[in-house]
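Researcher: We're reviewing a set of sequences before deciding which ones to prioritize for further study. For each one, I'd like a predicted 3D structure that I can look through quickly. This is RING-type domain-containing protein. If possible, include the structure in token form so it fits the rest of the review sheet.
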Amino acid sequence: ESSLQQALDESLLQQLQLEEIWEMRELAAEARRRAQAEEELQMAMAISLSMAGAGLRPEDEFETEDMSYEALANLENVKLTVPMHFLETLPVMLSQDAGDAVKDEVICAICTCEYEDDEELVVLPCTHSYHKDCAFEWLSEHSRNCPVCKQSVL
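Model: Here's the predicted structure for RING-type domain-containing protein, in token form for your review sheet.
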């Protein structure tokens, strides 16, 4: 009977962990909707800055085929990242509590270090997980996309 109770307890714990993950994902989805306006503003500003670097004004009508190679390269180099207030809404859990959330991942694909007990992990909407600090740095400074599958976090 105690092994049955233990199995039930483990099953309940897994269910609670999955419910917590889904709740965190729902909160993240809500934050994504709120961040949409900020993302659009950030993109508009980046395009405006790129256009200014190419000698164009926003009110100018232009076609990309009329742009120089350098101007096109400037447009391509615009970095879109994730705002910090959105990063703070991503699900964070301790590595030993992550269970099914990290699947078979045993290393952080950003720093290539193994996950150890008591480390904070972030689980992205695509379900890939990373060390919290690694994920925050990647998403706030380099790209808004998952480094593994390239899916946008927003």
